[in-house]
User: What shape does this take?
Amino acid sequence: MLIPVILSGGAGTRLWPVSREGYPKPFMKLADGQSLLHKTYVRAAAVADAGEVLTVTNRDYYFMSKDELAGCRLSDMHGSFLLEPVGRNTAPAVAMAALHVAEKHGRDALMLVLAADHLIQDQPAFVQAVEQASALAEQNYLVTFGIVPDAPETGFGYIESGASLGAGLAVKRFVEKPSLETALGYLAAGTFLWNSGMFCFKAGVILDELAEHAADVMAGSLSCWMATNAKASQTEGMMEIPLGAFSSVPDISIDYAVMERSSKVAVVPAAIGWSDIGSWNAVSHLAVPDADNNRVQGEAIFVDCKNTYVQGAGRLVAAIGLEDVLVIDTPDALLVAHPDKAQDVRKVVAQLKQQNHDAYRLHRTVARPWGTYTVLEEGARFKMKRIVVKPGASLSLQMHHHRSEHWVVVSGMAKVVNGEREIFIRPNESTFIPAGVQHRLVNPGVIDCVMIEVQVGDYLGEDDIIRFDCIYGRG
Assistant: This one.
């Protein structure tokens, strides 16, 4: 019995301005229109045999994750979600997942731990590697997947392999990110592999090893699991981890907590077309180059350019006389960088965060449990939004102190509560909601309801909202 466990966290700051705190790296769409998380779900479903995939993610990403899983149309796959109130690194996430799997499927059930933001391009080779890892895990090994290196990469940790174990190799040691000279030596030696951060083990074995090598993590996670079970809402397989209990669990990776300390660690060498998509350089290499090694995702024109990557969203980008440049264009932010400085994008995010600039958190289009809203224009005392409400979805029953709103339906149908009235609004019809009046919108149809909202008032911040009732549990 193999249960895929998807760890989906982190803001992906090196991939700003596409990846942001409110819309992190796993949800990034690649050129084929699929997100990294979507691809991970499909990949996991191909090797799962228990009908379940477990996602461990932040509670803020639950509805987006659920939508991604639903979009995969995996009719024989049930999704379960463990929702973290804060990030505590991979050791607590793995511990909580193992407690869930052990309780539901037994201690001998195998866990296949995958990152939500990796790309694997050779699916048959991945399936074969999982089969090899499963065979070792059945023998009570903690199995990691080592990527066969094709370059002296200094941005990855390494694993030194040892004696043969049949389906894999014993692990001699884990090595931190090396210098270029050291990485060249590792490549020449042929016994070093990139550390992928993917694992396979029995739920009971990883719990026992956590108890032996990271007792504080295990004790904190067990206490947290009991608190989670005590207040669990099993609605659609979703369990929220309590903030108080989880905040006390040590913040440490599974590598440091267990894998580097245990004597039961094995590695399966894997040539699976793996990439952690850790920078815009990695993203650019997914696009097909032209004769001058220019690459594009979106629409671009190159004139006298070489080694330039352009990614646009919704508008044409023209590049003239550029060489060795990354151009990432989004509706509200533009990144221009030299490829050698791609890792420094995180420094931009750090400055934005220090300034409390919205661009580190949100896109102009913002996902909500009921759909999305896009800020079209704003100025002194007004803001215009395009709002899309999914079929059957509902905005909360709410009220604003400082703004009035005018709703015009463009397509679909809206059932609106406006004060004491309940009305249906069809395309090219509207309603006006004064400040201080309770209101709600429900989409009763089978297609998206699209409307334009015009806000007018002295204060137009998103925090001017009083919720009286919300089907998504937001206060």
Notes: The chain has three domains: 2-275, 280-348, 365-469. The chain has a mean pLDDT of 93.
